[in-house]
Amino acid sequence: MTTPAPGIYDDVPFSEYQSWAALNASTLKIGEESMLAMRWQREHQTEPTPAMILGSAGHTCCLEPDLFPMRYVLWQGDRRGKQFTAFKEANQHKTILRESDYATCLAMRDAVNAHPVASTLLKHYKTANEPQFEASILWHANDLEHKARLDVLSPECIVDLKTTRSVNPRSFGTSAFRMGYHIQIATYVEAVEAIGRGTLPFAIIAVQNAAPFDVVVFNVPDELVTLGRHARSQLIERYKWCVKHDTWPGVSADMLDLEFPGFAYPDGDVDITIGGESAFD
Predict the structure, then answer these.
(1) Taking a C-beta distance cutoff of 8 angstroms, is the pair 155, 201 a contact?
(2) Which of 16, 127, 229, 253 can bridge 186 by disulfide, Cβ–Cβ 3.0-4.6 Å?
(3) Separation CA 222–CA 201 (nearest Å)
């Protein structure tokens, strides 16, 4: 499928967006693991996991509820036998959800709509001038083609919906860094800048994907966007070097010392004994 010219596009099926020959945040942030892993991701189409399917369904249910029944359908019962085969054939253009996943999507939608800040954000954007849901953007920078798909883009703000196990600020912040959200955020900010809409504020609506379906809205400070820009820039330069030299290194070609995280080590005042002897002697 031909990659379109740089710009912003509405109503692009995700499968078509995936086919565009351009670098996106999901692939780029894998480069933090290694360039070898990043190349593998670009060259292989992986099947969506159950968690990914639930996340996509939750996005549609929360952000575009009118489209939810057009893209997803509920099946109650065993997924074996003639009845399910006939049901699957009758709904071949929809994703079939189990009863528990379908109920989870509705619960996340209701939780987001009931949250005072989240609901205000989405209601405002649904009535603002030219709000765009699942907006796909293509642009050229650093001698490369780039693409991004934004959950919500309004004239005033970029909004990203995240389904998560925990919305505790510390836990979510740790998870967000580990999953490279700062790189994704910087990519989206750059995408909007590239189409001439300026540098917009960024907000994350985080909703639990299990009871009690709590919701927290996080403002993304400028320093986190700057952190993401720096990491993104470094990864792009590494990627360009790998393309030029057709060399894709893994994590390391040398022997490394095994390291544990800092919290694994006791404080200086704590002594651990084994068989009456200090474990640190």
Answers:
(1) no
(2) 229
(3) 8
Residues belonging to the chain: 281
Where b means 16+ CB within 10 Å and e means fewer, 121-146 reads bbeebeeeeebbbbbbbbbeeeeeeb
Place of tokens 């031909």: 2
The label of the residue with tokens 């590239």 reads 194
pLDDT of residue 80: 85
Query: What does the pLDDT read at residue 68?
Result: 95
Run of H or E residues at 161: strand 158-164
Name the residue with tokens 């509920």.
74
Q: Which amino acid is at 9?
A: Y
CA distance 182 to 225: 6
Answer yes or no: are the C-beta atoms of 54 and 209 closer than 8 Å: yes
Residues 137-181 have pLDDT tens digits of: 999 999 999 999 999 998 889 999 999 999 999 999 999 999 999
Residue 267 carries which side chain, given as an amino acid letter?
Answer: D
For the record, the structure tokens of 194 come out as 């590239």
